UniProtKB/TrEMBL annotation:
Family to which this protein belongs: Belongs to the sigma-70 factor family. ECF subfamily.
Alphabetical keyword list: DNA-binding, Sigma factor, Transcription, Transcription regulation
Highest rank taxon of the organism: Bacteria
Domain RNA polymerase sigma-70 region, residue spans: 4-69
Residues in RNA polymerase sigma factor 70 region 4 type domain copies: 97-150
Full protein name: Sigma-24 (FecI-like protein)
UniProt keyword Transcription regulation present: yes
CDD domains for the chain: Sigma70_r4
Pfam families the record matches: Sigma70_r2, Sigma70_r4_2
Length: 160
């Protein structure tokens, strides 16, 4: 019953990350599976919605990495030739893909900066919720978000 109740919200939130509806559906299914597997691990230190946001953010980013890897393995490079590159067909969708690429790059160099930024800027959680969930002081959350935004801005301006 829980999965059925949260599914529409999870799909909507996955769509914030992934511009293609089918990709968002795939991420949604992965997220629902993660929730089903890990519900016993929810300790109640933060709100359920915060815990769910983290799973959605991680699941959506993982789906994006998987799709990108599949495309590369099939010899398409970044995108399959029969699928239009969202960067050239939609400013919003292209911006999302560029942001996901920038987050992936940031994660490889400063992984501790990614979660606070994603939770604040994409999941739209307040600083206190983020601090509680991550178990770090609110000032540290703000500092990491500031640093992450600067790094992501540099990556985006440099064209990755």
């Amino acid at each position: 019953m829980l999965l059925a109740a949260i599914q529409p919200s999870v799909l909507r939130r996955c769509s914030r990350f992934l511009p293609c509806y089918q990709d968002a559906e795939e991420a949604c299914q992965d997220v629902l599976m993660q929730v089903a597997r890990n519900i016993g691990g929810f300790e109640g230190r933060s709100k359920f919605s915060t815990w769910l946001h983290v799973i959605i953010a991680n699941g959506s980013r993982q789906t994006y990495r998987t799709l990108k890897r599949r495309a590369a393995e099939q010899g398409y490079g970044e995108m399959p030739v029969d699928v239009a590159d969202a960067r050239t067909t939609s400013v919003i969708a292209g911006s999302r893909l560029d942001l996901l690429d920038a987050l992936e790059r940031l994660e490889s160099t400063r992984a501790e900066l990614v979660a606070p930024m994603v939770l604040r800027d994409i999941c739209q959680l307040d600083y206190k919720e983020i601090a509680t969930h991550l178990g770090i002081p609110e000032g540290t959350v703000k500092s990491r978000i500031h640093q992450a935004r600067g790094q992501v801005r540099e990556y985006l301006l440099a064209g990755l």
